[in-house]
Amino acid sequence: MDKDYWNEQFRSRQNKLFSPEEYLVKNIECFRPGSVLDVACGDGRNAIFLSKHGYDVTGIDFANEGLRRLRDFASTQGLRLNTHEINADDTERITTLGQFDNAIFVHFKPSIKTFLAVSNLVRSNGIILMTSFNYRHLLKSPQFPSQLCYGEAEFLNRSSLLDLVEYVSYSDERGFLDGYIFRKQSAP
Ligand SMILES: C[S@@+](CC[C@H](N)C(=O)[O-])C[C@H]1O[C@@H](n2cnc3c(N)ncnc32)[C@H](O)[C@@H]1O
Fold first, then answer.
1. 23 in a domain, yes or no?
2. pTM to 2 decimal places
3. Ligand 1 centre and the CA of 5: distance in Å?
4. Which residues form the Tellurite resistance methyltransferase TehB-like domain (predicted)?
5. Mapped to the 3 state alphabet, what secondary structure does the chain carry?
6. Is 40 in the pocket of ligand 1 (CB under 6 A)?
7. CATH code of residue 60
8. Over the stretch 79-95, which tens digit does the pLDDT of each residue have?
9. Has residue 15 got a pLDDT over 80?
10. Average pLDDT, whole number, for the chain?
11. For the chain, how many structural domains are there in total?
């Protein structure tokens, strides 16, 4: 599932934005006020939701067609968001984005290197929220793209700078998913 695949996916979508991810909607109250970095933001259903809630949102993705749709949806709604065409594996480039109050990964599985690079950009007491399908989903639907599926507890205990607020496995009409919420520790 490379950039061309995702660009084609976004090109074939209708001119309608999907609903924001329920796990994000449910947990927005715990975010630190300010900015959010949306990693692999796609065409922006979550970025636009966050922008409407007053966050200064930066969306990054390697699919320019997704980012183009995001910008179109945003301008139709009078919202201003920052977008950057970046491969999430390019941690050097990510590091140049500056600091953020929060970060999200939704339906995207970062490498541990990217997870840690993004964690480093989040300010003290900021939130990192992640959710995607999990390994149970893969057992049930082996044809589902494994790149999108989190392994069991895959992101636990990866950084001593992150406190775990919540790790949940849940299921809904789409299948089996995991959710993580971390809070960046306060500076010593
Ligand atoms: C399933 S979509 C999720 C999009 C969005 N987060 C959402 O919840 O609607 C996965 C997204 O990951 C992006 N993506 C996949 N691999 C990437 C990479 N290496 N760097 C940046 N974006 C990537 C795709 O372009 C696509 O927009």
1. no
2. 0.96
3. 11
4. 16-88
5. CCHHHHHHHHHCCCCCCCCCCHHHHHHHHHCCCCEEEEECCCCCHHHHHHHHCCCEEEEEECCHHHHHHHHHHHHHCCCCCEEEECCCCCHHHHHCCCCEEEEEEECCCCCHHHHHHHHHHEEEEEEEEEEEEEHHHHHHCCCCCHHHCECCCCCCCCCCCEEEEEEEEEEECCEEEEEEEEEECCCC
6. yes
7. 3.40.50.150
8. 999 999 999 999 999 99
9. yes
10. 96
11. 1
Q: Looking up tokens 């140049």, which residue turns up?
A: 96
Q: Is the CB of 6 under 6 A from ligand 1?
A: yes
Residue 154 within any structural domain of the chain? yes
CA separation (Å) from 37 to 24, 118, 145? 13, 8, 24
Ligand 1: which of 108, 174, 177 to mutate, judged by most atoms within 8 Å of the beta carbon?
108
Please indicate, yes or no, if residue 115 is contained in any of the structural domains.
yes
Q: Is there a domain that residue 83 lies in?
A: yes
